[in-house]
Amino acid sequence: MSFTEEEIDNLSVRDAVAELIDSSRNERLGLPAGIRVPLLVSSAALVGGLSGMVFGYREAGLRFLASNSHRLPTNRNGWFMYHKRKGYYCFAQSFVLGAKTAGKIGLFTAVMFGTEALLDEVRQLKDFGNTMAATTLTGFFYAWALGMKPVQAKNYIRKGGKYGLLLGVAQDALIFSRGGYVWYINGVLGLEPKKLHERID
């Protein structure tokens, strides 16, 4: 059976894509830790920074109004200058709060997913247990850093563990759906999903 040059190119691209996906099927979110953690950290910092800027702009507007309520303008030119100064002030304050929020959320995300990747390496096993341990440890250190009371800290750590369990199970489900190995699904339940090249063929 002879193939045209175009068909050979299409076959090689298909095989390359299938091999790439198969090689990363056991990775969380389909990405190795060296790519996944920086991507998650930068995304979280970006989202946190933007939300911090929005909140900071609104807060700065209220603060500006409160500090100038005793000397509000009385004519059109005065109101123009008032809103101009208010805009500069709000933008400056929104960038400050946005940078702080981006730093906090980025650091929190880096610690959480970095710990998860470290536990994956130490245990040589990727499962929900590592995710749950990472979120619980991150919650513990966050509560300790903020000096929370024991009741608050316990509640915060418990919530972190619950969210970690949900996130870990969701990641395990994604790994399994890509044909990866998840010990409690493949080993205990005996389920074996098809790998991508088997699905294509």
Describe the structure.
- It is a single chain.
- The protein is mostly helical.
- The chain has 2 domains: 30-124, no CATH class; 125-201.
- Helices cover 80% and strands 0% of the residues.
- The chain has helices spanning 5-23, 33-68, 76-123, 128-146, 150-177, 183-188, 196-200.
- Helix 2 (33-68) runs antiparallel to helix 3 (76-123), helix 3 packs across helix 4 and helix 4 packs antiparallel against helix 5 (150-177).
- The radius of gyration is 25 Å and the shape is elongated.
Q: Could you provide a short overview of the structure?
A:
This protein has 201 residues and is mostly helical.
How many DSSP H or I helices?
7
Order of helices and strands: HHHHHHH
Which stretches of 5+ consecutive residues score pLDDT under 50?
Answer: none
Q: By helix and strand content, what is the structural category?
A: mainly alpha
- Principal-axis shape equals elongated
**Arithmetic mean of pLDDT:** 85
Helix content: over 70%
Computed CA radius of gyration, to the nearest angstrom:
25 Å
Number of domains: 2
Largest sheet: none
Termini gap: 18 Å
Classify the beta-strand content into a percent band. under 5%
Transmembrane segments: 35-57, 88-113, 133-151
Keywords: Membrane, Transmembrane, Transmembrane helix
Notable characteristics:
7 helices; 201 residues; mainly alpha; 2 domains; transmembrane helix; 80% helix; elongated
Topology:
Layout: H1 5-23, H2 33-68, H3 76-123, H4 128-146, H5 150-177, H6 183-188, H7 196-200
Helix pairs in contact: 2-3, 3-4, 4-5
Transmembrane segments: 35-57, 88-113, 133-151
Keywords: Membrane, Transmembrane, Transmembrane helix
